């Protein structure tokens, strides 16, 4: 069972640091934690075999402090670094630095990270691999070029920044007369946010679902397609809140086409290790959106239905070993849902909160998995992501998974900060969600409906 | 009768709470203090101190006993000025090595922390008399780890 | 400087602890009191009172403020004697119904709790003046649930 | 999904009360808890929709207080009672009383409980059904009768009380000259313990494994055989400590024979609802020991490998519905292990402890299920079973399940009472356990070896 790694430094914090620590320990690999001064009492520090403080609270000086992290790896004798998600996980330069110091970066090659990190490059590669992408342009050099595309594809269209993310430099254009103004404001915004004002256009799909495919590939040419996840329940900021696998109401033919495309994409990028291909689904059609070259927050729903440990496979692949499954060994079983318990106030635009946790009671029982760094008395520092815990419910079918999740959320007690738990119960018991197959506009519409109801109640 | 019992429970609880509390403040570092009640909750959390300090010299444990009955707390001992590491690396001392009690100038290089082949000098801060040497030759050090203590310079 | 800060932290912690504690003892039922420290832990748990009492009459809340500074606690109010249910069932009052202030003999049957078709009589305990009626006609009652309160008979 | 029950009273406490509460809530059935005065702050009280105090701390006056429990059911309008395990779960009279009050007892018929509760009757029924039983006698009326059997079967033989349990009235006899004295002392002990001094003899199997079969049957004649569990890791008191499914190192032929016999046994007893047939396995042979007519503590290992919710099925069966699976739907997947976290001191003969829990940190992550009524600040009353929590690890194979369990136990923090956690880590990392297939003498031998080692270290 033991992977060929001698010691793994985990360059992350919170639940994902614990997740990696668990996989290492189950494979008998010693671990090294890094932490900021704000995380001295964190569970990920206590559970690791060694731990190094790498800087003060703010991420830029600790969890992104590459020299201190590499130095900690060298001093402790770690021969591999797992970046988790966020922080340095999709930093091609960091992956190169690891390589230059003889440390295995547990993830894809720097080249793959770099290629997929630039949206225009990623799209070009996918087009070459015959992966369907949203009809769109290259970088637009002029208003005329943009207008010609919009005419051809039909309004509405979407302006996007090539260096973009998080909705910055993005504009929906519903008619020709808005186009010029939108192009110029999107470009300035992109320039301000990323130092790169280049934009391109895409056909706007108005009610898409977010469907993503989990892939896993080793250095021996084996590629596993681990089904899809539906992550359409997103906050207005496009951050995922509830994810599930398999995607509800998808036909067998849709799936077959999706998996074939995913396999082609992985081969086109010569991708190695775990990754996720994100698609927008529009009825029977789907379009490549981007590839995340790391393990994702929502990976446990895939683990639940395939009964596989993705992080262990990541470690094996990084050690140059073969994946421990072949595609034919894998069979999805039942349905899984993940809810993100965030220290946020949904009634106040999901404003994040920090504080100390007074009472922590986590759910348990059949079909419930909890991944968290929470404990009673733990503090939630203001510097980092607001996610406190992930709850994963697995059932024989979607109805059972939902029923389990609802009862698990009702069992969950986190006092000291506001959380997304009550709001997620609302979503899970909403008939539209229960029917399955909502689009990414569902949650914003639900929120708008609620504030209208509240406003009506007040007046 | 029931109320009498509760009355003495209350006094007992307070006594049992306060006595060890005082001792504890004297002996250790209170990390967290919590009162958990159905309609009321209190939590007091002490700001973290750098981890290495708890294993440092006696000069650091000068926490006076607080007198709940209203008496004045004892005056604290003069605190040490700490020189800490800004990087993760391996400590190497300068030659000749400094010794406890030695007075050094602010600019004095006491050693360096080697990280990724780069020597990051460790200087004597505001200078003064060395009160504690908290690191050994060749020891791996982390960010914020106290390396040297100086007598309170104020 | 660091020690000065800690000193005032300590005093602040104690003040912040004790003030609300006193208020709480006055206002409610302390259920649990915990101090959690690296090398020390204290926990005080109050003996449970029957649940229904917390919604009972004011006569039950006579918990005096304990004076930490050394002063004597106030004398508690006279406690009520409680008549509780020994069984799970439905309460039925006797006719004519008793009223608050009425003096009744020890043998007086105040009602019964019907359980599985059996009438389990509720008697007036040691008797005396009725201070509280804590149950309604036809109300389901659980084991240990207070039904009537009597003025302290001591 | 909704079972036809309107409201369920849960006549138990601790983790099993929560387990039943979870199944009911997932099926949208309201619940009624009962509790003793010592359990007022217990989680099973807080999680139920209604709760009735039924008596003071000692079980005899609360959790066994039949009139108060039935009265609570009638007052609250519960139409069914789930007894959990222990307390009233195998009390045929209680099942009858429920029936007489129009309340569904969630378990088998009073007749089945009564028949299986008497060991001699149970054995007779099984012999008639051609279920292999340990070679043995009926009630022995004379020393001569006993001697004749011992001669025929060969020494060693075991004297057992017909009303017995917990080792009371039990004697191993290794040679003829011990027989008469052993018979007389076993009989007196049984008379004192159970008010019934009748004993019988069995062939003593010296190194048996404890293999049990989970069965589930509905009122429509469907019988499911849900594989076996190996519960050979038992304390010297014969209480189970670690259970697993499937049983390691059992051949396909052994399993086939075992399942066929289990099906015959269920049909012979006209058994309905969940039950467990316990066998002693001796090489390729196995012998019926007893049938437990209730859900068992270790049911989650079966749930893990079959991906089934046994308690939900119990509710369905009690409502007269059909089981939601057929035998052909069921396929065991991977390996599961359960560890009982007890408030006991293994170094002191597993002496139980009571107290208040200062710190409680439960394990999580992939493949880990926790069933517990623990929370930080909860008190462990002295009146009841010392089990605090069950941790269940599921892995793709036995090695992964063991590795998961070890890392989960290392994550577990329960301060305030001594627990079985450190000792269970020792067992799980012991090469003999790791090899699989230990017999029921394994744990006592391990304990003896340890005390010898300690004694040697001292001298």
**Low-confidence segments of chain B, ≥5 residues, pLDDT <50?**
1-8, 13-76
**Whole-number average pLDDT of chain B?**
65
Number of strands of chain B: 10
CATH homologous superfamily heading of chain B: RNA polymerase II/Efflux pump adaptor protein, barrel-sandwich hybrid domain
Described by strand count, sense and barrel closure, the largest sheet of chain B is: 4 strands, antiparallel
Structural class by SSE content of chain B:
alpha+beta
Low-confidence stretches of chain A: none
Q: Count up the domains of chain B.
A: 1
CATH architecture group name of the largest domain in chain A: 2-Layer Sandwich
The coarse overall form of chain B would be globular
How many helical elements of chain A? 15
CATH level-two architecture of chain B: Beta Barrel
Strand order of the largest sheet of chain A: 14-13-10-11-12-15-22-20
CATH topology description of the largest domain in chain A: D-amino Acid Aminotransferase, Chain A, domain 1
Give me the side-by-side strand order of the main sheet of chain B.
3-10-8-5
Return the CATH class of chain B. Answer: Mainly Beta
CATH class of the largest domain in chain A: Alpha Beta
Mean pLDDT of chain A: 95
How far apart are the termini of chain A?
Answer: 65 Å
Q: How is this structure best summarized?
A:
The complex is a heterotetramer, with two copies of chain A (459 residues) and two copies of chain B (154 residues). With 459 residues, chain A is α+β, with helices and mostly antiparallel strands. Chain A is built from 15 helices and 23 strands.
């Amino acid at each position: 069972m033991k992977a060929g790694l001698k010691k793994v430094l985990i360059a992350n914090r919170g639940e994902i640091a614990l997740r990696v620590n668990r996989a290492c320990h189950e494979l008998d690999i010693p671990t090294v934690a890094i932490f900021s001064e704000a995380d001295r009492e964190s569970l990920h520090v206590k559970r690791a075999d060694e731990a190094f403080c790498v800087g003060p609270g703010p991420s830029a000086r600790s969890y992104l402090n590459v020299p201190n992290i590499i130095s900690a790896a060298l001093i402790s004798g770690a021969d591999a670094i797992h970046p988790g998600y966020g922080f340095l996980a999709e930093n091609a330069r960091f992956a190169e630095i690891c390589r230059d110091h003889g440390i295995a970066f547990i993830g894809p090659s720097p080249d793959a990270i770099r290629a997929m990190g630039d949206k225009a490059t990623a799209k070009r590669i996918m087009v070459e691999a015959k992966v369907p992408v949203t009809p769109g342009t290259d970088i637009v050099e002029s208003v005329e070029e943009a207008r010609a595309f919009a005419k051809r594809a039909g309004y509405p269209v979407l302006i996007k920044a090539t260096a973009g993310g998080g909705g910055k430099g993005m504009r929906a254009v519903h008619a020709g007369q808005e186009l010029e103004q939108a192009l110029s404001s999107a470009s300035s915004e992109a320039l301000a946010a990323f130092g790169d004002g280049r934009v391109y256009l895409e056909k706007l799909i108005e009610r898409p679902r977010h469907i993503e495919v989990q892939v896993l590939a080793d250095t021996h040419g084996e590629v596993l397609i681990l089904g899809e996840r539906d992550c359409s329940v997103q906050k207005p900021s496009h951050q995922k809140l509830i994810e599930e696998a398999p995607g509800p109401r998808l036909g067998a033919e849709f799936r077959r086409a999706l998996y074939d495309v995913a396999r082609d994409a992985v081969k086109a990028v010569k991708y190695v290790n775990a990754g996720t291909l994100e698609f927008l689904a529009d009825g029977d059609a789907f379009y490549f959106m981007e590839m995340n070259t790391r393990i994702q927050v929502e990976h446990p729903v895939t683990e639940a239905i395939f009964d596989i440990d993705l992080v262990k496979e990541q470690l094996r692949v990084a050690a140059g070993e073969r994946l421990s499954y072949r595609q034919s060994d894998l069979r999805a079983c039942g349905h899984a849902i993940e809810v993100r318990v965030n220290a946020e106030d949904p009634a106040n635009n999901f404003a994040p909160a920090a504080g100390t946790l007074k009472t922590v009671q986590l759910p348990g029982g059949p079909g419930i998995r909890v991944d968290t760094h929470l404990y009673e008395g733990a503090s939630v520092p203001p510097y980092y992501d607001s996610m406190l815990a992930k709850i994963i419910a697995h059932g024989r079918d979607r109805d059972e998974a939902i029923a389990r999740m609802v009862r698990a959320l009702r069992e969950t007690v986190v006092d000291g900060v506001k959380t997304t738990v009550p709001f997620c119960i609302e979503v899970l018991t909403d008939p539209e969600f229960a029917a399955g197959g909502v689009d990414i506009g569902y949650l914003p519409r639900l929120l708008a409906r609620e504030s209208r109801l509240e406003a009506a109640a007040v007046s | 009768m029931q109320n009498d019992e509760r009355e003495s429970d209350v006094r007992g609880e307070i006594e049992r709470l306060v006595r060890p509390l005082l001792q504890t403040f004297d002996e250790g570092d209170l990390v967290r203090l919590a009162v958990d009640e159905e309609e009321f909750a209190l939590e007091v959390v002490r700001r973290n101190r750098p981890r290495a300090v708890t294993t440092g010299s006696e000069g650091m444990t000068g926490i006076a006993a607080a007198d709940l009955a209203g008496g004045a707390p004892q005056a604290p001992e003069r605190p040490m000025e700490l020189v800490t590491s800004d990087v993760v690396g391996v400590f190497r001392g300068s030659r000749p090595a400094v010794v406890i009690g030695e007075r050094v100038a602010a600019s004095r290089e006491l050693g360096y922390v080697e990280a990724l082949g780069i020597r990051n000098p460790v200087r004597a801060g505001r200078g003064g008399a060395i009160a504690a040497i908290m690191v050994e030759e060749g020891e791996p050090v982390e960010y914020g780890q106290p390396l040297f203590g100086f007598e309170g310079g104020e």
